[in-house]
Amino acid sequence: MPFRIALRLCLSAALITPLGAMAVTPQPAPFTDAPAGAPPASWVHTRINKELPGTDFSIVQEPTGNVLRAYSSSAASSLVYTLPDAVTANAQLQWRWKVSQAVPKSAMADKATDDYAARVYVFFDYDKSRLPFTDRVKIDMARTLYGADLPTAALCYVWGTADAVGAIAPNPYTDRVRMIVLQRGDAKAGQWISESRDLAADFQAAFGEPAPAVTGIALGADTDNTGATVEARFGDLKFVPNHQ
Fold first, then answer.
1. Would 65 be classed as within a structural domain?
2. Strand (E) positions, 14-143?
3. Tens digits of per-residue pLDDT, 98-132?
4. Is 145 helix (H, G, I), strand (E, B) or coil?
5. What is the pTM for the complete model shown?
6. 10 Å Cβ neighbour count for 191?
7. What is the total count of domains within the chain?
8. Residue 147 belongs to a domain with what CATH number?
9. How many helices (H) and strands (E) does the chain have?
10. In a domain, 132, yes or no
11. Where do runs of H (alpha helix) occur along the chain?
12. Residue 31 belongs to what domain range?
């Protein structure tokens, strides 16, 4: 092989391989190819309040592939996926979801109405040392009480009822979770709706500062406060770099 051709091939390999490796983004385990029944083991069923019934999660068939079903009747819990490596917040999170109906009394203003037909949480690697002392104490106490590694900052995208689409507000239980209403009411119930969110922009709007890296996500449907019954379904979730 001529020297110049060999040199070009070596240089191309040296340049392409690192760039290809950098382009790989960790993704949540998909539901599409999972068998019907229990969710993939990498999705962990998490109940913050173990005295409450948990939401029932299962993989079910749809014409376009298998999806996650979340059924909640006076229940509350989440299905959590911890990413093996943190994902830059400069990304879009894309997914699709549908609900059987909206929770009738769902509203962000009060703990008694903090129920949603569907939730998608995004957890961020926020340095706890940056929080005020009282917030650090609250988080440590909550982690001890509930036995869960509660996030220091999270966005929660919801399908609500009373609040306007686009509304952003702290969760009534903790201001370390900021709620963002993406869908509301029953007008689109029973329909698959596709979502794509700019995580860095949403974090900036919700918390007023740049977003740290993403460490995990969680899915849920909860009705423990209002006593409603609802079913939500989720397609695969995917992180897509903003430059794409």
1. yes
2. 43-46, 56-60, 67-73, 78-87, 91-99, 116-124
3. 999 999 999 999 999 999 999 999 999 865 555 55
4. helix
5. 0.84
6. 11
7. 1
8. 2.60.120
9. 3, 13
10. yes
11. 3-23, 133-146, 199-207
12. 27-241
